[in-house]
Amino acid sequence: MTDRRRRFEAQALPHLDAAYNLARWLARPPLDADDIVQDAVLRAWRAFDQVRGEDVKPWLLTIVRNCFRTAAGQAGRGRDVPLPESFEAELVDSAPDPEAVALQRDSGRQLDGMLAALAPDFREILVLREMEDMSYGDIARILEIPIGTVMSRLARARAQLKENWHLAEGGRHVLQ
């Protein structure tokens, strides 16, 4: 095994789950996300010698985002494809109580649906910050936008998600 391969496996491969998570939220269908991640890992391998001492996760997620943009055929905008009716969130059951598990799954599906209903720019920023725990600086580099824009988009995305949640909790259906 070459030194380059060892470094790639040690530095890039631990972030495959984050790459898939971002690709899934951008592309939505799991098969599309698989293709995007596969393309991104191949591109990352080819360009790995160019990485110098920086955190590999933001670099890899930038490649995932660019692969999505290329696959979507749009310059800088994600396609807004509705979720299939059969979409179910994968939840880890921590409670043995079936009622609690059912309520948790319902809330998870509702939250997934609300997140999916957000504009692509808002969804993307929430996934990177809240699910992938990326710093504002890393998000700014991945999305190629100023940190101030990251903060304002994140605030607007959180506000929209909160508003949708409150509307849904009040008995009004926000999602279709």
Overview of this structure, please?
With 176 residues, this protein is an all-alpha fold. It has 2 domains: 3-72, Rna Polymerase Sigma Factor, Chain: A (Orthogonal Bundle), CATH 1.10.1740; 98-169, Arc Repressor Mutant, subunit A (Orthogonal Bundle). Helix content is 68%, strand content 0%. It has helices spanning 3-11, 16-27, 30-47, 56-72, 98-117, 120-131, 136-143, 147-169. Helix 2 packs antiparallel against helix 6 (120-131) and helix 7 (136-143) packs across helix 8 (147-169). The longest helix has 23 residues, at 147-169. The radius of gyration is 18 Å and the shape is globular. The N and C termini lie far apart (51 Å). The relative contact order is 0.11.
CA-CA gap between termini: 51 Å
Q: In percent, how much strand structure appears in the residues?
A: under 5%
Radius of gyration: 18 Å
Q: Tell me, briefly, the overall form.
A: globular
The portion of residues assigned to helices is 55-70%
Total number of beta strands = 0
Question: What kind of sheet is the major sheet?
Answer: none
